[in-house]
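the two lines:
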Amino acid sequence: MKKSGHKNISCQEALKRVFDYIDNHIEDVSRDEFEQHIEKCRHCFDRVEFEKLLKSRLRTLQARRSTDRLRKRVDDIITKF
Amino acid sequence: MKLTYEEQRQFKSHVLPLLDDLHRLAYYLCHNENDAEDLVAETVKKACEKFRSLRDLGKIKPWLFRILRNTFISFCRERKKYATIEYDENNENEDERFSLFTEVSQPFLLWWGNPERELVNKLLEDDIKKAIAEVPDDFRFVVVLCDVEGLSYDDISKMLDIPIGTVRSRIARGRSILQKKLYDHAVERGLIRKREHRHEKIRS
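prediction for all of em together
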């Protein structure tokens, strides 16, 4: 349901807000307008889902761990310093 | 000046838990394991030297990331083998307006058909790493900080000492460039077929 004081936004306007939305860098009013739009527009909804999926795929790269060799090297640097 | 025993202990207890983060970031800057380890080692040396100037231990992570980035810039100057990928402001190209979703999605498929999501699931870690390595340095750094490390725009802004608006635009442009590289890798590996260029469908 449309909230009072919120405007309907176009796909063009919605596309400008996609990254702000998925990065949670968006003000409340903008977020509400955006969510109202994607509730009705499959194209923009799919775009948001895609960008979220890709972002979460990149997040899986975080599993990379430092090697024992590096840990030993760093420990030596600190101890000698 | 040498750290006291207590300072050493404090430094270790704060820095060692962040080693994975430093190593990962170094890897995405250098693109290979040995250089990444050298970069982390040099970063830790510099951090030891500057440790007494760090007033708030709660900010040690952005502080270390900033030292790592500055050390990387020195590495690039010293070691010719680090060919940094420069970005030419005057030569914006189509990569910056590229959307993988627009290229791959097929809006007329029934609701369960989702080629763009299938593609993301088919991409190997190696495809993604190669694509990240091809993004120009300034853009790669913010995309890695935001998408791999999960930092907020505000944290990135403070870390790099650049306005939030600049962070926002670099992330948007960096992601577009990254998506174009991913697309190229996917075409090369035969995961998708190259399509004739088409424009984003905008509905008003």
